[in-house]
């Protein structure tokens, strides 16, 4: 895939997938999923060097870890549409006997997933470990991770942030979904986190800000810039400014849709703003 | 009573250190992580010989568990090292999600378990770790009894695919198992055949059980003594076979009676052949500062306690 129109079509289709998945089971997390749709589209289709098929070790390819596992709908849609598992399987999201658990897991053997996540704050440590394994294996591929901004309130992140800088884990690009929202409200009201850029820099990271985190061209440019800064003795952080609920007007700029599914009427309205492009599952 | 002797005492943690060093030489995928306790865990030799395969994490155990999980992705076999308290209770959720539920091949190696850590006191004397770890689906839980067995267990767990909790301790204890004894996960070791009472013990309590067996013999009681080095998976066959013969059992462990070996055995018996059982274990309390011997006596974990428990359980037959 290469042109922006195709990528935008995919993003629109992924949005439909997210909305239909959470609507069907009346549960799940559409807000963050919608906000990170462009990031996932860019990462899996323009940025990461991926090999055919799936194995747990992932040697000889780039790796991605989702730390904020509750945005599983976008992850599942992207993986399915990338060919890791049948697109029809999105129909089983959160249902009994499904490989598509509420939060991603390796436990059911879903291709594309290498760690369980959901309990917040653990993904950066895992990504660091995988990055260090790549170094031991003389594998020059990169490790990517995604974290919620609210998730940074978990202390383990700061252990990991300190460690990655101290140990020069420079084959890691950790992206923070900087949407300023968490379940109980705006992050700055729940627990004011101050200047995240300054914090990461103070810990010794190279920080890039992507101001328009829902614009594909901007994201691709930013991710490529991040890639160019790897291998320089510092871990790389991207502060990705997104809008929670992006692409559905009544879900945007609020934490209300963090973990709430649309009803029938709301689904119809949301889908009308995201017309079918590549075919619904 | 079969005679057990020893010529040397050594700490089980040194057995871990020796096993890890040997693994470093023979398995290039083995890597080690430590949260600022290299000396206490006896990891120096591995680190000296394999500096590129060692990760000093600093005092950040949660991060250590996550990094260990990540290192398995890429085929590494990580051995984490810190005290038992910080290896389990402190990082339970990290182990649960990133290691156990994720099915990662991490070996959680925990020293200074139980009361025998001694003077540092209750903050460091975890007596709940076996329970915490055995409740995790897929987790193997091992508590070897002496230097040789800890070394053998360390080497053996590298060949097991999946998460393992390996528990050992600080004090010097008699080395009485053969240096060449093969370690089989989940396979109990018969130490003495007897007909009156079954005594199953794990970790530091195995030597005490042998002492108790000798004392009981002097009183005309023959004890069947079994070394249960693996608490999960439990060697159910060995225990059921023994109680069929003896009709009663004493379980011995340096752990709270809630959640430990004794509870696993009780569950096994309840599901199969209920027989009287006595627990030589800590009676649902925290520990305190003191010498290991003082603590084992005060909390009822020495050979005399085992003898009393055996006599009590015999009366309940």
Automatic annotation (TrEMBL), chain A:
<dbReference type="InterPro" id="IPR005474">
    <property type="entry name" value="Transketolase_N"/>
</dbReference>
<protein>
    <submittedName>
        <fullName>Transketolase</fullName>
    </submittedName>
</protein>
<comment type="similarity">
    <text>Belongs to the transketolase family.</text>
</comment>
<keyword id="KW-0786">Thiamine pyrophosphate</keyword>
<dbReference type="Pfam" id="PF00456">
    <property type="entry name" value="Transketolase_N"/>
</dbReference>
<feature type="domain" description="Transketolase N-terminal">
    <location>
        <begin position="12"/>
        <end position="269"/>
    </location>
</feature>
<dbReference type="InterPro" id="IPR029061">
    <property type="entry name" value="THDP-binding"/>
</dbReference>
Automatic annotation (TrEMBL), chain B:
<dbReference type="InterPro" id="IPR009014">
    <property type="entry name" value="Transketo_C/PFOR_II"/>
</dbReference>
<comment type="similarity">
    <text>Belongs to the transketolase family.</text>
</comment>
<dbReference type="InterPro" id="IPR051157">
    <property type="entry name" value="PDH/Transketolase"/>
</dbReference>
<dbReference type="InterPro" id="IPR033248">
    <property type="entry name" value="Transketolase_C"/>
</dbReference>
<dbReference type="InterPro" id="IPR029061">
    <property type="entry name" value="THDP-binding"/>
</dbReference>
<keyword id="KW-0786">Thiamine pyrophosphate</keyword>
<dbReference type="Pfam" id="PF02780">
    <property type="entry name" value="Transketolase_C"/>
</dbReference>
<dbReference type="Pfam" id="PF02779">
    <property type="entry name" value="Transket_pyr"/>
</dbReference>
<dbReference type="InterPro" id="IPR005475">
    <property type="entry name" value="Transketolase-like_Pyr-bd"/>
</dbReference>
<protein>
    <submittedName>
        <fullName>Transketolase family protein</fullName>
    </submittedName>
</protein>
<feature type="domain" description="Transketolase-like pyrimidine-binding">
    <location>
        <begin position="10"/>
        <end position="175"/>
    </location>
</feature>
